[in-house]
Amino acid sequence: MVTTVLRKFDMTTTVTAKGQVTIPKAVRELLGISPGSSVDFVRAPDGRIVLVRADKKQPLTRFAKLRGHAGEGLGTDAIMALTRGDE
């Protein structure tokens, strides 16, 4: 989590009728937020709401780690022949 506080800037933004706000450029640059990025709002112990960039990569499950893509290899007929014991 980013703990840097931007004390050099007074950053105020207005909430639109749709509940949207513009994240100031300095904050977007600091957090690496670009169009399409996801952000999380986290409640700090002192009650403040903190904006953090959401990581898109979720930890892989054991099953997901085993998933992959087979490259070129045996075709279906060859695999079936091996399964049946055909030579």
TrEMBL record:
SMART domains: SpoVT_AbrB (SM00966). The keyword NADP does not apply. Keywords: DNA-binding. PROSITE patterns: SPOVT_ABRB. Pfam families: MazE_antitoxin (PF04014). InterPro entries: SpoVT-AbrB_dom (IPR007159), SpoVT-AbrB_sf (IPR037914). It comes from the Bacteria. Residues 10-56 form the SpoVT-AbrB domain. One of its GO terms (molecular function) is DNA binding. This is SpoVT-AbrB domain-containing protein. It comes from Agrobacterium fabrum (strain C58 / ATCC 33970) (Agrobacterium tumefaciens (strain C58)).
